[in-house]
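Study this pair:
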Amino acid sequence: MAMGMSGGGGGRRGRRRSRGPMAEINVTPLVDVMLVLLIIFMVTAPLLKAAVPIELPETRAKAMSEEQGQIVITLSRDGAVYYEADELAPGELPDRLAATPAGPDGKPPLVTLRADKALDYGRVMEVMGELNRAGFTSISLVTDVSGG
């Protein structure tokens, strides 16, 4: 009745089933968890970058990729200047820019300029002039990309 299910009398079929445990690992749950973590980090990383809350002007331009070694200058609605997340005193920007180290190729790093859309155009140009005077010629202006 058992027809080859046990080791006795089953011949070769019984020996083949008596191997050790299978050594395969199911990686599907691991991949699922890693993809969810990747999505979470991709969503939260841009939010961590913007330390100074400002209202950016909107545009339909394509988003540029971020580069390593770039510095972020932010102009808030009240006209305060921030170097990364540090608020600068009036007149402190040239000194801070002079202390910025050059990149590995000897060139100054890329500057990302974020300015509140309510600011006067002249105030933004003052900061851009200081950047140019300090030798920073590669400046990206940050806008809020609209969906339409």
Q: What stands out?
A: The chain has two domains: 12-49, 58-145. The mean pLDDT is 76.
